[in-house]
Design brief:
By secondary structure, the protein is mostly helical. The protein is 62% helix and 11% strand.
Length: 382
């Protein structure tokens, strides 16, 4: 009996020693184990949310994300569905429909009313404007409206973002150029921050990919596209709700510019290697020529999709994580969602720079391929 008692005490002592050697790990494991069963923030009534309430919140978050990803004809900073109050400002609607039709987007009352102008009636549905009658009824087929869509030349949120970034770039770099002239080639003011980026584009992107001989004629475009995409990406992280580079029409336009510059500035060697490759058997040339020609289109297409998909995915993930704060019913879940959203926002700043760099670098690579000098005397003798 005495021996058993001593053995039991010894085992208890060893157990206490093991736990006390790692008290922090023990406490953390215990906290993690009880987290699913604890809700600190809300009283019992809020903890027992009905499935309908949860579904409504998720539907509202999904609707908000979809609305953010679309271009918009107005700025809405805050909206209350119950009172119908919207805080923001309207943008001009410019339509070509039997003449120019210009009016304010406030006529739509955020999509709730029919806008009438010069005897024409219009409704806005998923940020697209359709012509209709006074009732505002849309005719749908397979879930899509079949009403006539007038040519929309409106100043949308994306257009405002593009104009803002364009004016900002003009001011910044015109001042940088003036500071060079005034201070003997030394940047001053805000130009000191952007000068290293300008040099980086020249020394690390343009010259290595295009070459010393031809890089200067492409520098204006490369600098413009780099800072344009970078500033628009950063603008998309602000609470103003811009999603310019997450719009495939914008990225398609940028990729088209790269394609046109590559096509019209390429030398004869570039086209010779596409349509009649030296050193390749003649029958194979007829097979490879269409493939190479298709490759010239696929390259800018990949530019378009890469920028669009990365920025769009970043916006969706970030807003989904923010939406989790409204789904969780405890301060722990909301705090974790906020912390994760904050960390992801910091990461998105890196992505904003990275996507601008990739777009510029690949454009320079295509320009370099179009200007490369080839020597195939040896191949022709064979």
């Amino acid at each position: 009996m005495h021996l058993n008692f001593r053995n039991q005490n010894k085992r208890r002592y060893l157990t206490v020693m093991v736990i006390s050697n790692k008290p922090l790990k023990f406490i953390l494991v215990a906290l993690v184990a009880i987290l699913p069963f604890v809700s600190f923030a809300n009283p019992t009534e809020e903890k027992e949310a009905t499935p309908t309430e949860s579904t409504d919140v998720k539907s509202e978050i999904k609707e908000f994300i979809n609305h953010h990803l679309l271009d918009a004809h107005d700025f809405t900073f805050n909206a209350d569905k119950e009172s119908g109050e919207h805080n923001g400002f309207s943008l001009p609607i410019i339509l070509w429909d039997n003449g120019l039709q210009v009016f304010s987007s406030s006529e739509f009352h955020h999509g709730e009313k029919v806008a009438e102008h010069n005897g024409n009636y219009y409704v806005i549905h998923h940020e697209k404007i359709y012509k209709t009658d006074a009732s505002g009824k849309l005719t749908e087929e397979h879930g899509h409206p079949t009403n006539v869509q007038p040519l929309d030349l409106s100043i949308t949120k994306s257009v405002v973002g593009i104009l803002f970034v364009s004016i900002l770039m003009f001011i910044i770099f015109s001042r940088l150029a003036k500071s060079y002239a005034k201070n003997g080639g030394i940047a001053s003011g805000a130009g000191r921050f952007f000068e290293p980026l300008v040099l980086y584009v020249r020394d690390e992107i343009a010259i290595p990919n295009i070459g010393e001989k031809n890089y200067k004629k492409y520098m204006s475009y490369l600098l413009t596209i780099f800072f344009f995409v970078f500033f628009l990406n950063i603008l998309g992280l602000t609470p103003l709700g811009f999603n310019v580079t997450g719009n495939i029409a914008i990225t398609a336009s940028l990729a088209l510019l790269t394609y046109l510059i590559t096509t019209f500035s390429a030398n004869k060697n570039y086209w010779a290697h596409i349509f009649w490759m030296p050193g390749v058997p003649t029958p194979m040339k007829f097979i490879l020529a269409p493939i190479e020609l298709l490759g010239t289109v696929i390259k800018p297409f990949s530019l378009m999709i890469r920028l669009y998909a990365n920025i769009l995915a970043g916006h969706v993930v970030l807003m989904s994580i923010i939406g989790l704060m409204f789904i969780f019913k405890s301060w722990i879940g909301s705090t974790l969602s906020f912390g994760l959203a904050f960390a992801l926002s910091i990461l998105e700043i890196l992505v904003a720079f990275l996507q601008a760099y990739i777009f510029t670098m690949l454009s320079a690579l295509y320009f370099g391929a179009g200007n490369e000098e080839h020597h195939h005397e040896g191949a022709e003798h064979h």
